[in-house]
Queue: 2 jobs
Job 1
Amino acid sequence: MTVDPLAHPTSDDVAARLRSRGLRVTGPRLTVYRTLARLGGHRSADQVAAAVAGDGPGLPRTSVYNALKALADAGLVAAVDAGPGTALYEVHGHSHHHFLCRRCEALLDVPAATPVQDLLGLQLPGAVIESAQVVLRGVCPQCAGTPAS
Amino acid sequence: MTVDPLAHPTSDDVAARLRSRGLRVTGPRLTVYRTLARLGGHRSADQVAAAVAGDGPGLPRTSVYNALKALADAGLVAAVDAGPGTALYEVHGHSHHHFLCRRCEALLDVPAATPVQDLLGLQLPGAVIESAQVVLRGVCPQCAGTPAS
DNA sequence: ATCCAGATTTAGACCCTGTACAAATTTAGA
DNA sequence: TCTAAATTTGTACAGGGTCTAAATCTGGAT
């Protein structure tokens, strides 16, 4: 079993990453991370909680939220705002942005070929930009091909 | 009184814009739009509702939400996600993006000198990109100058 | 000028996501 | 092994937004 540099971090990687941020390595955090990685894509906290519950005793809702927050602080998980009251989480992989279709509500990944924060950072002297989230809205290619209802 | 091309749209402009989208021109929609324009900046739905109430009989909370949604559909108002469960609205003026300070929670405007959607649109062939929202996160210039607590 | 169909407003209850709290438990270093 | 501090857990709570159905209003047709 060779090491694939593109694969998700192993549990050991996750543990090291948490420790390096001064966060403790706990069961819920590893469970939530592994579940989110296995599910892939954009998932709500409750989707994660449901998936965790499907694998065994499950975790309280609050614990899933706590774990997601800790993982996000450690930079292992990214939170995406897909509208008010709709937070989605995903394992932090290669940088990309999001496109939200107004017609079918699909959430598509958009490659981040351009370093957006570099461009915009110039406009905000003195600020430390730690992350940039881009949400594009419009009509996705599939819906654009069919006439509006 | 000359026409200032940089001024907010008049009520007539707003009415025309609503009609062009197949939306009806109603009292609540005009009231909400005018109030948001008068307040300026980024406002929550409840802030708008409170301001409306201060001017007379007020509007039910639901009506404010409905109106904001209709105005957003018409492109007259922009909704900014400033984290989960925190939607802010602003009159859709010149394109700009937002920076959210992790330390003091300030929400700053960032000039959009670069046409972000043009850059990213290239990555999504066939899609109709109607808006691009960029939320930068980090530490604002003021907080960056003071040591962390 | 009046009418009508359909969109919109309104009022209320409701849901959902996330947070606050305090006690029990667990981690990690001594 | 032992201890202090971080974390988990269960419960309750809060804010923001949505759903529903009846009343009202808009805008085109008559």
Job 2
Amino acid sequence: MKRTTPYSSPNTATPDQATSQSERATLTLREMLVQGRFLPGERLREVPLAKELGVSRIPLRLALERLAHEGFVDTRPTRGFTARQFDIADISDAIDLRGAIEGMAARFAAERNVRTEELATLRSTHEKMAELVRNGKLTLELVSEYIALNAEFHAEVLRLSGSRQLQRALDQICCLPFASPNAFLRRQYLAPESRDLFQMSVEHHRAIVEAIEFREGARAESLAREHARIARRNLESALANKTLGEVPGLQLIKL
Amino acid sequence: MKRTTPYSSPNTATPDQATSQSERATLTLREMLVQGRFLPGERLREVPLAKELGVSRIPLRLALERLAHEGFVDTRPTRGFTARQFDIADISDAIDLRGAIEGMAARFAAERNVRTEELATLRSTHEKMAELVRNGKLTLELVSEYIALNAEFHAEVLRLSGSRQLQRALDQICCLPFASPNAFLRRQYLAPESRDLFQMSVEHHRAIVEAIEFREGARAESLAREHARIARRNLESALANKTLGEVPGLQLIKL
DNA sequence: ATACCACGGTTTGCATGCAATAATGTCCGG
DNA sequence: CCGGACATTATTGCATGCAAACCGTGGTAT
């Protein structure tokens, strides 16, 4: 039950490779919740759920406890767990919150990181992304590559901030699948203004690297904040076009 | 195991009034961890710990799981839990992070809250605090009252933000006892510049209310951020004067 | 001397079953 | 016909005990 790297959020792991029953239960249940398998507010009874998941109640309970901390279920003592409902405000705010924390991370990186050569990885990741976007049309395959690089980029900024607390805070926000920086990228790929959005992202990244390099903390911070707003544009666009299907975790939104 | 109101952080509850074994275990263990009862990195073996706490391993395990999410213990699968070590950077960053989130809350309150009469509670809480500080010397008793009002004030700003996500984020940060807005107040009471710091706090609050009232989001945000820095001043001062004892959770800091 | 493996004790992970509490249905009085 | 007390069922909370994974030790082969 370790989340090894930031932004490699839990949704990427598959239940099959779980090392323990409680981990399998956690992964499967989280997936079920994200898929909207439960009605909002629906009570999750332990015995039937355990039978369905093929685990006993003890690991199931541990899984529910974790998911409660991650915000997927609510808990009332001696009255069990209920599926959590999210609304648009939750998504918007979660994205903004991520922006604020990533903003702090970028600022810390700018203010604290001294050695230029430490920026090599960040710069190289940025270059690869810029290359992808520069070279003609993005295929689905290239988008997957972009997504991986994007996760790397965000993780590297976080690493450069050197702050465990920021890391923790971001981990906890990105538990919500729709709050992660990659949440909307597959959908963005389908958007009419797709190309523009990817280009804007890359330009944001470029400027962030530059700001960190020149120790421009305030600039780095506001850039990272604004960068997160692309996700909100995608959210609005997805809502308008009813293309929520491409976005992980958006099935369980109350409209 | 519900945290009903924000800022009424877990440390206030006593293990005696726990309704379940796992809750009692959580409260007791958290207290033990905060008191520095374990060496940093020390492995927490379930059987002896359970015996010491007078509960069985199942509720203890649930407690450990929760504390892992709160950041007090680390976990490695099949290798148990270990006591977490904190350092000065963790505290500083946690305080800054709180400032950032409270800043967002203040901004949201300014940008979203429309009706003036909704500010009545906030204003009244602020007035009471101002009164306390205005009327001569703060006794220990008055400081306790101040602390309660301070929690109320911060909770009210959060409430006015209307954001569940911010609430969640703040709850999670304030799990760390030294990150809460009240963490340093008892210590601040003992500081030579005590009076000035309380006055400064009240002035911050006044300005925050004003900014919210006039919909000055950016101002509200930066005020709330700066307001949190008072805690960092207290931290530095406590470090310099070696008066860490007055600050909850500062026994477990590696210097 | 070092690397490897076998093995015993220790510790975690989990399934089962029981007790206590909450939800639900039933019956009776108004 | 409706509301409240009580009985019944359903559901959570937990203790016990067992099995598997892990760690350290010692012995053996290279």
